[in-house]
Fold this protein.
Amino acid sequence: MERESALSEIIIKIRENKMRKCFLFAFMKRYCFLTLAILLFSKSWIQAQDLNYLFKPGDKGYACFRIPAVITTSKGTLLAFAEGRKKHCGDADDIDLVLRRSNDNGRTWSDLTVVWDDAVNTCGNPAPILDEKTGKIILLSTWNLGGDHENQIIDQVSKDTRRIFVLSSSDDGNTWTKPKEITADVKLPNWTWYATGPCNGIQIKKGKYKGRLIIPCDHIEAGTKKYFSHVVYSDDGGENWKLGGTTPTDQVNECTVAELPKGKLLLNMRNYNQVRYRQTAISEDGGMSWSALKQDTSLPEPVCQASMIRLWNTNKKPVLAFSNPASQKKRENMTIKWSYDLGKTWSKSKVVHAGPAAYSNLVEISSGQLGLLFEGGIKSPYEGIAWMIIE
């Protein structure tokens, strides 16, 4: 009996010890999980606190801001554009083109001003460009009736269609001309949906087409409903616009363009096929035609707009900078990449916001620094449009 009693006590102690270990293991597991959750939350919270929003829901009565675009003027002023969406974040309804200006390289910004408000209609897709010869800022934009939605325009059952307009400023972005329609000059009759940019355009600096203004655009064909990228151009300082070349194949739309040596152009496009990488094409004739599309496996994307610019304030070889949500799954992980070999490879990379992020526009600041205007937030990419100077 004593042996049995002693054995029972040993068994009880072993069980108690195991239970203590199990309890301790469970406690540590929960503690680690809780710690991890706190760290992740803290990281997101800190990121959100770091975002310097230039456009945030509620500003000036707007429910939402989307579609950033930014350029530097000849006087070094930064002009940050966006769509001010009156009622919601959707792509249709009452949408204005809005602007904020900075005279100190992006450290402080003016109050929000309205560039174009056409009552309850949609004024959007800002695509600004600087004519370096005159200092004039030209702004291409699209328009449609507020009640016409994208799918209705594509299906040709809308009341009106998508139209293209141009505005300009000769006083550093303080005032703007009335919008002038150029639809007949830059849109074919069998095109339905149409978008300018949304991002900056460029002026060719070298070669045969020096001085030409280029705006990246996209469109959808009637009937086939195929998506294509194309450009429009002006050879007279933005007074008149003509239709340039369209990509030879479809499944691409919103695009961005940069100049390569000898006046060549590199077009970088949002991709709609099953392989989630950016598509690229080259033009050797000032944007009048484009080479076969080639995917860039260094630039993953979740099907989203992106930005690419050439950096001119450098004495080294040509440098390209690119920004997008670098993820193949969803709109997150806003990343800037640099190429030192004309876009063949992207050897340098920096994640500037690991959380939700979507559209963006890079700009070279007069100080020589790089600026980024982008959509970002904690739970959604559309919590505001933030400004960041990349050191």
